[in-house]
Amino acid sequence: MNTKESGPSTQPRGTVTGLHERICVNPMYDDIAQELTDAHRNMERVLTLIRLQVDSLKEGQDPAGFLLLNNAISYMRDYPGVIHHPVEELIFARLIQHAPETRTVCSRLHDQHQNFRRREASLLRRIHSAQAGDLEACRQVKQIGTAYCTEHASHIRSEEVDVFPQAVRWLENSDWREIGEQSRTLVDPLLVRKDLKQYDNLYDYLMTAGRDFNIH
Fold it and tell me: Helices 103-131 and 63-78: crossing angle, nearest 10°?
């Protein structure tokens, strides 16, 4: 018969079903968890916008649509790709050390991070060509953009269902503290704020048009 694992917790660590189950156990974990989940919700908003823009693009005669789509894809490249995903990679590395059985899912998510970077670069090239009147590039934007949004949404879900609960289960307080310390050295926050200023019109659109495409 299985016995309950000893320790300070009042429930087995393996019963964690969500990222916030052990909230307040470790302040550093709390901060990282909040930042990651907040980022995911923002990314989902932008992915929804991308999908809607892709679906509604008018070949060769939609400069406003192409501009907004360009900004949205650039945001996904410059924020999640540079700031958010590297923090998740720190978690993946620690998790594989503590729970080698998670290597397969962590490796898959790592590979997807790399693939998203390639997709974003490909989309931006095709958007620029489509803006110049290339109808085939416009059709490719629609095809690649649709697949990108679907795969990225599934990726976020997998992180929150398959990986984050395992990280809560296996990582120690010292791991979360070191991840927090390492994450602060990845990017200069002053440069981040400056770089993200260019997306103010994207944020404005999301705030004003969010009701129209069910963004909360």
Answer: 150
**pTM for the predicted model, two decimal places:** 0.78
Right CATH number for 25-208 from 3.90.770.10, 3.90.1150.10, 2.130.10.130, 1.20.120.520? 1.20.120.520
Domain boundaries, the chain: 25-208
Q: Where are the alpha helices (DSSP H) in the chain?
A: 27-56, 63-78, 85-98, 103-131, 135-158, 164-170, 173-184, 189-196, 200-209
CB 105 within 8 A of CB 159: no
CA distances from 106 to 71, 72, 76, 92 (A): 29, 26, 21, 6
147-189 pLDDT, tens digit per residue, is 999 999 999 999 999 999 999 999 999 999 999 999 888 765 5
